[in-house]
């Protein structure tokens, strides 16, 4: 059993993908499994925190009774639940792969095949991390994730500043065994005060412990 170093802390974590409805039977989604976010929720709960886990559509279970799970489907629902939960939280961890675009309108009946080309107009979704960054109080901490295909370091640090995060976790896409759907991950953490920490490839449970160690170091 772990040291209850996060007793009294309320931590809100987003995890998984979002599904954006095209019509009653179709959606736009992504390959996020939610595993990293769920591993973070378990780690925080084991250290004594009260966790609210805002989960997109995933096929994962959480057993810890200190985790309050809120299931959502769309980016809009995730936005609403996360902003509400962050109001009396001490930490926000934005681990979800939120859709960047959603259909401008959802058809209320199934769209029929016509043999013609079909275009679906998309509108941007709201950025949850950036919204929390704007309402963040000095005593609250906010953590984000970045998955980049090019200029990784520059883009991750730019994102951290723009969204007013305390640190950002860069997922490597370069390494096999890291990122979406895997059980392992390889990360680098950049802190707002210029810290940089590179980690070895590890299980997502061990990566979660590293991330929460970094969090505790900036909290205390
Ligand atoms: O800008 P980008 O989507 O690459 O930023 C990734 C970070 O922002 C992640 O922490 C992700 O959870 C968060 N994010 C969010 N809401 C969005 C888009 C991204 O919270 N609509």
Automatic annotation (TrEMBL):
Region (Phosphopantothenate--cysteine ligase): 11-220
Record domain DNA/pantothenate metabolism flavoprotein C-terminal: where: 6-216
Superkingdom as given in the UniProt entry: Bacteria
Residues reported in the UniProt entry to bind CTP: 100, 110, 145, 159, 163
Details of cofactor binding: Binds 1 FMN per subunit.
Cofactor entry: Mg(2+); FMN
Catalytic activity: (R)-4'-phosphopantothenate + L-cysteine + CTP = N-[(R)-4-phosphopantothenoyl]-L-cysteine + CMP + diphosphate + H(+); N-[(R)-4-phosphopantothenoyl]-L-cysteine + H(+) = (R)-4'-phosphopantetheine + CO2
Pathway: Cofactor biosynthesis; coenzyme A biosynthesis; CoA from (R)-pantothenate: step 3/5; Cofactor biosynthesis; coenzyme A biosynthesis; CoA from (R)-pantothenate: step 2/5
Alphabetic keyword roster: Decarboxylase, Flavoprotein, FMN, Ligase, Lyase, Magnesium, Metal-binding, Multifunctional enzyme
Enzyme Commission number: 4.1.1.36, 6.3.2.5
UniProt function note: Catalyzes two steps in the biosynthesis of coenzyme A. In the first step cysteine is conjugated to 4'-phosphopantothenate to form 4-phosphopantothenoylcysteine, in the latter compound is decarboxylated to form 4'-phosphopantotheine.
The family this protein is said to belong to: In the C-terminal section; belongs to the PPC synthetase family. In the N-terminal section; belongs to the HFCD (homo-oligomeric flavin containing Cys decarboxylase) superfamily.
Name used for this protein in its record: Coenzyme A biosynthesis bifunctional protein CoaBC
Source species taxonomy: Bacteria, Pseudomonadati, Bacteroidota, Bacteroidia, Bacteroidales
Gene: coaBC
Region of the whole protein represented: 179 to 398 of 398
